[in-house]
Amino acid sequence: MLDIAGLSHRYADGHQAVEDVELHVARGELVSIVGPSGCGKSTLLRCVAGLQRPSAGDISVAGRAVDGVPDDLAVVFQDYTRSLFPWLTVRDNVALPLRRRGLDRAERRARALAALAQVGLDGTAGKYPWQLSGGMQQRVAIARALAYRPALLLMDEPFGSVDAQTREDLEDLLLSVRGGTDGPGTDAPGTPAPGTEGMTILLVTHDIDESVYVADRVVVLTGAPGRVHSELPVELPAPRDQIGTRALPAFVRLRTEVGRAVRRPCTP
Questions:
Q1: What does the pLDDT look like over 147-206, one tens digit per residue?
Q2: Could you identify which of 49, 142, 176, 195 might form a hypothetical disulfide with 149, taking C-beta atoms 3.0 to 4.6 angstroms apart as the criterion?
Q3: pTM higher than 0.85 for the full model?
């Protein structure tokens, strides 16, 4: 689904954010990206999203070179207060990008309502974002991405601005829409939510436990300029849950290994 080859980016002030990044993500895979602060994680994601042209290297999504924002891609940002339009209702915020899909008004509204139900926000369609809590607003942002039904979903520290309990709820929500846990929006544990079958997710996070808990694979970047330091497969049983999964010896081993790589990264 995603191929990154020789990706480098240097900003106008001379700062080299990432250098010679090689990364390949399979269709349907959820990959977490972690690394020291300032290692270029967000720069990498913006380049993949077509929001920033890299200085060098090639990026392709589903076999097509990225030259501008790909049609079959959605992004969930960390700052939900800036990604939602306060003058639009929750339903209209979710439905807005569906115009790009060429859907008529009735279909846009129906898909928006279905996505809101998927993330556990039934009954909020007529409210405005400022009437909801921070965690609920981020659920709206996630619902908007899910309603679009992208082949590739990019998430840039999407849970970094909420409290610990809400963060855990949103982690479980992310797993539930892919079929990894028995959360809102799933028909049964292990069953992908409608429209999310085969969705590929690239998650940037600074939380080591989170990177292991939600992912199929964790990619660790070195300090700036960011390069791929290591890739660790996550083979934890499904469905995952916040108590049982985090108590598993395999989870403890993986989060220790990721933490060690983040704190003492070296150039490959």
A1: 998 989 999 988 877 788 888 988 998 888 776 444 433 333 344 555 555 689 999 999
A2: 195
A3: yes
